[in-house]
Sequence to fold (230 residues):
Amino acid sequence: MSSFLSLPLEIRFHIYRELRSFKSPLIKSPFQDDSNALGYCSFGFQSRILETNRQIFYEAKEVFYGENYWTFFASQRNQFSSILFRMEPMVLTLPFIRRAHIRFGMFDWLFRESYGLTPCAYGDITKTNVEEICRVLLTAPALRTIKIIWTETCTFFPERRPSELDSVRSLIFEVLRPLLALPTTTDLQKSNIMVAYMNGVKATDMELGFSECVDEVIALHRSTKVFRGL
Fold:
């Protein structure tokens, strides 16, 4: 009788993909509940097949680690810690991941800054979170794609135009600056940039400023690749 490994590789990979679970596993501290998650991956996996034998382990992990998107929250409200990723199972996962998202949440901070309201610590928290996320991603040697996302839903929309948009743009760039330290083997990409408001309004000046800063960081990162001859 034919064994599983006698099947063509394409069919085996199709079977591995059927084992995916679209209930996203959370990346979180064991001391926090799900509301304080540090991120998530796009799909889970029936991981017991990884215990079958060595060949199946190396094939199936290509689906789980290689085709999964690992999303890290650069939130203004939660404190991201790279220490978590020195623990199992994350320390065993990082060498294999290939694709990551860095998802920003920073509307409250930018709103306050652009309207000259009382300063808050959200900007410092967000920048520290980006630095910590970059420390984690620097330990992922197989990582090839990093997508930058800013998606939030807010309950209100400003009725007047910001007065200090240029200074806010410089603050955004400083938050994004740690991304320049990511390996030149990775490809930085811009993904969704959208703040959704309850009244349906979107595409604010803050979003456009963020988008422009992302473009600048990507260009600088790619210029480093050219300089190093990659």
Notes: Residues 103 and 149 are 5 Å apart (CA to CA).
